[in-house]
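From the shared-data thread, chain only:
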Amino acid sequence: MDITDNRRLNLTDSLKIEGFENLKRIRIKKFKLISLEIRNCSQLNEINLVELPILTSLSVTGCSNLTMITEL
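Structure, as tokens:
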């Protein structure tokens, strides 16, 4: 799943992703997120957080296959 800032999608403050059991990769780019919570995505193995300059809280639970978190 790629989530990239555009004019139609305005994510600010917090985002919660939960229960996507077949999700393997998340890439979130160029949003003004302060908090990100990812829960119960059992196949998730990679989280790529690109250009999230004000992110101060990251919570990941129930993602037993997670092997990589990249922040730029």
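Residues 2-71 form one domain.
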